[in-house]
Design a protein that fits this description.
Helix 1 packs parallel to helix 2, helix 1 packs antiparallel against helix 7 and helix 5 runs antiparallel to helix 6. The protein is built from nine helices and eight strands.
């Protein structure tokens, strides 16, 4: 099996950042390894073991610790299972899966089943929303309620914005390796005050063979059979998946769309100041 890392040094550095973020949360947690047909999958379990189970699927190469950071204050209420996606920069195996077909659905369903969760509230963040969309397409009975946060797979951003705010700065960084060009790239979608996040993104850009193929968009016929509640948190200033476009398209996609909540103060990656809003909506919707 090939590796997604450009060197062993790059892998070790990124795993160190993973551990650093997890320890910085200062929470009690258990690391669970689930064996699947796509390889070993790491799950970080935390929270109230007697609470409702909530399964989280993280954004592209973000990993479980970064996902848990936004919901740590809810640990007294719910039992959280933050899943490390295989084939990404996580503690799971490096098995890459195709975006077409049902591989992601089979994998996600297998993980949830082996965690002894019959039916779960599922949260998909960014790329993780695409994984959840695959799950509700092929295994709708596994999901009780579905929450998408700045979701991929519903709409894409404007091509011109993508070229000027993302592609050009990224090309400049790849040529020069200068931080100012990477900051121009990351400022389009990430909070500027997050030093850790910048270091993570820099390590990703320099040390990982990134597959940046955008997930295919969800079609109404794919989920016509899914009628459980759907909730969405979208960001108005999202260069990847603009909030207003997400809301408009979601109304025609989901028969049981309950609410679309807009984050006013965030780009694609929510700012830390928005964590309380996100927690409030999750608590309201899950209950």
């Amino acid at each position: 099996m090939g590796t997604i890392y450009k060197s062993e040094q790059a892998k070790n550095g990124l795993m160190k950042l993973y551990d650093e973020k997890l320890e910085s949360l200062r929470i009690d947690y258990t690391e669970v390894d689930v064996d699947t047909q796509f390889g070993r999958t790491r799950v970080i379990q935390t929270g109230n073991v007697k609470g409702k189970p909530i399964v989280l699927f993280h954004g592209f190469n973000a990993g479980a610790p970064l996902t848990l950071e936004a919901i740590t204050d809810l640990r007294g209420l719910y039992s959280f299972f933050a899943v490390d996606t295989v084939g990404q920069v996580t503690k799971s195996e490096e098995t890459t899966m195709k975006t077409k077909g049902d591989s992601y659905a089979v994998w996600a369903n297998e993980v949830i089943e082996k965690l002894n969760i019959e039916k779960a509230n599922v949260i998909g963040i960014s790329y993780g929303a695409f994984i959840v969309q695959k799950l509700i397409t092929h295994k709708p009975e596994r999901v009780e309620k579905c929450i998408f946060v700045v979701p991929s797979g519903i709409v894409n951003g404007k091509i011109w914005d993508s070229i000027t705010k993302l592609t050009i700065p990224l090309l400049r960084f790849r040529i020069t390796k200068k931080d100012k060009h990477l900051k121009a790239f990351t400022n389009a979608f990430a909070p500027q005050e997050d030093h850790f996040l910048f270091q993570l993104l820099k390590s990703l850009m320099l040390g990982v063979k990134l597959n940046t193929k955008i997930p295919t968009l969800l079609k109404r016929k794919d989920i016509a059979h899914f009628n459980h509640p759907v909730y969405i948190i979208a960001a108005l200033d999202d260069v990847f998946f603009p909030g207003k476009k997400v809301a408009k398209k979601s109304k025609s996609l989901f028969t049981n769309l309950k609410e679309v909540y807009f984050l006013n103060d965030s780009k694609h990656m929510p700012s830390k100041s928005s964590y309380s809003e996100i927690q409030l909506k999750i608590r309201e919707w899950v209950n």
